[in-house]
Amino acid sequence: MVSIVVPTYNEKDGLPVLVKEVFSVLGAAGLDGEMVIVDDNSPDGTGQVAEDLGKEYNVKVVHRAGKLGLSSAVIDGFKAAGGEILGVMDADFSHDPKILPAMVKAITEEGNEVVIGSRYIPGGGVKDWPYVRLVISKTAVALARPLTPVKDITSGYFLFRREVIEGVTLNPIGFKICLEVVMKGKYTKWKEVPYVFINRIAGTSKMSKKEVFNYLIQLWDLWKFKHSRKPQS
Description:
alpha/beta; Spore Coat Polysaccharide Biosynthesis Protein SpsA, Chain A; 7-stranded mixed sheet; two-stranded parallel ribbon
């Protein structure tokens, strides 16, 4: 089973559209799936919307006390998930559900343990982004290049086998949890699958100066982690 974790905060308008589309895509591909909605006590009632969706679809809802951070929400979602394959996507429909079957196939049939939805490989891209945001995104990717060859390491859309993070401590700082999984996870083979990122259809962006600062801290922490694992001469 594929468990897709979706962190939410004020996403009541886009969430029903996403859930319907995800299960439609998985069902058409003959895939068994669940969605784990982790809601940070959204004042717009997203948590109740998620509970209502659970009456019709295979949806679990994790309610948290407040806005505690995207990465920690994802980690809590992993703990609640029941699938052999775990994944993450945004609630705002910016991540194309139609590539989910290809991402799952890359794991189940091609032997990859980590699969990343990528905007920055041939076939991928972004739509309706202001130029400044594109520059920020590509700069963030470039800053991580010394750590990993993944072309879209800041992607928020990825799947992996549960064993990849078993016994691994993920740091919930910032909101680039994919970077944590890629750098700390236990795997030997990975793949990027192209998709076109579409600007959110509802809600508000999570990007802020604080998140940019946290990303820099995360890069520094992972640089130290990477070099601490090098054999000493």
